[in-house]
Specification:
Elements: E1 2-11, E2 14-24, E3 29-33, H1 40-47, E4 55-60, E5 63-64, H2 70-75, E6 78-80, H3 93-98, H4 109-114, H5 116-136, H6 152-164, E7 170-174, H7 182-199, E8 202-206, H8 210-216, E9 220-224, E10 227-232, H9 234-239, H10 241-258
Parallel strand pairs: 3-8, 3-9, 6-7, 7-8
Antiparallel strand pairs: 1-2, 1-4, 4-5, 9-10
Keywords: ATP-binding, Nucleotide-binding, Transport
Pfam family, one: ABC_tran
Protein name: ABC transporter ATP-binding protein
Length: 259
């Protein structure tokens, strides 16, 4: 699905990503972990077209997508969410989802004047789809709530819902669990697993909650100092001495030894 080949991203003399090479297999839920400053989010931004790499390539389904802008990658089914949710706070939850698909007839001024019936038909279809998404995510009771009134976890679910309004192939999740209570985190985890199993979504997720990563992800990739340090199952990662030294710490090592 996604192949990252020797990607570098420099900001002046700072090498945020320093020769990262990795593969995200079709149908996987891949975890990307590492200490703060390891280059994880910068790599996400390079893959998603927010930043151009200094060098290296990104391949999707055998095609070079290096440097393509986000809207073109969106059209190809590559989507990403953000650590801080980006909702339209004054619009309802349903309306936020209805905004996602591109090429809507109502976007053209001419159609707003002369194709009102077609616009109304499209909006009804989008509203139905949005309601199906909200039911899938178990937040349909919030459909008419202003998005700005949602909790942090509910906003993360809304971000996940946006990916369901289009034909997503691979979704990059940036700390989907950050600031989310355990109950909602379990709901988010359930939704990710269902999207993967039932709809064939491929996921790559940055996350610091190792229990959450362990529940969802195989494989797990560890980054440190801008490059890939290790890849394996969660148990292999926890037992990897290089990873323990670079990131996880002796506390987790001792925890794993007594488990």
């Amino acid at each position: 699905m996604i192949v990252v080949e020797d990607v570098h991203k420099h900001f002046g003399g700072f090498h945020a990503v320093d020769g990262a090479t990795l593969t995200i297999e079709t149908g996987s839920i891949t975890g990307l972990v590492g200490p703060n400053g390891a280059g994880k989010t910068t790599l996400f931004n390079v893959i998603a077209g927010v930043l151009e790499p200094t060098s290296g390539r990104v391949i999707m389904d055998g095609e070079d997508i290096t440097g393509l802008p986000p809207h073109e990658l969106f059209a190809r089914g590559l989507l990403r969410t953000f650590q801080i949710a980006h909702e339209f706070s004054s619009m309802t939850v349903r309306e936020n989802l209805m905004m996602v698909p591109g090429g809507q007839s109502g976007e053209a001024l001419w159609n707003a004047w002369f194709a009102r019936r077609r616009i109304a038909s499209e909006e009804r279809a989008l509203a139905r789809k949005a309601d199906e998404v909200l039911e899938f995510l178990t937040i349909d009771h919030l459909s008419d709530e202003k998005a700005g009134n949602l909790s942090g976890g509910q906003k993360k679910l809304l971000e996940l819902g946006r990916t369901m309004m289009v034909d997503a192939k691979v979704v990059f999740l940036d700390e989907v669990g950050a600031g989310v209570n355990r109950t909602l985190l379990n709901t988010i985890g359930d939704a990710i697993q269902r999207l993967n199993a039932e709809r064939g979504y491929t996921f790559c997720m940055i996350e610091h909650d190792m229990d959450f990563i362990g529940r969802l992800c195989d494989p797990v990739i560890v980054m440190a100092e801008g490059h890939v340090l290790a890849k394996g199952t969660i148990d292999e990662i926890k037992a990897n001495e290089q990873v323990i030294e670079a990131y996880l710490g002796t506390g987790l090592k001792n925890k794993a030894a007594t488990a």
